[in-house]
Design goal:
Elements lengths: L20 H11 L12 H6 L7 H10 L8 E4 L2 E4 L11
Antiparallel strand pairs: 1-2
Length: 95
């Protein structure tokens, strides 16, 4: 989608280039959501270790940093805004 809009972008593969807690907190702020809303709840690690537990926002963030595959993706950031780009049309909200 960004290629079609002819917008410059940088791809960050946070499965291999792990985000820090501060980076993830900043993205969550830009998304305007609670940390729990960024968690992929069908992941095996979620069901095995976290499902059914009452976690604080900080504990959700710690879990996502420790297990980046729990982070919903893709995320597109543009300045101080971000969206989960699923569906891809969500990207238009922040361009």
């Amino acid at each position: 989608m960004l290629e079609l809009e002819d917008k410059p972008f940088t791809t960050v593969n946070y499965l291999s280039d792990t985000l820090t807690k501060n980076e993830l907190k900043a993205i969550i702020r830009k998304l305007g959501i609670a940390p729990v809303e960024l968690v992929r709840k069908k992941e095996i690690i979620w069901t095995a270790e976290y499902k059914g537990k009452q976690l604080t926002d900080d504990e959700f963030i710690t879990a996502m940093v420790a297990h980046p595959n729990l982070i919903e993706r893709p995320i597109v950031v543009n300045g101080d805004k971000a969206v989960i780009a699923r569906p891809a049309e969500n990207i238009k909200k922040i361009l």
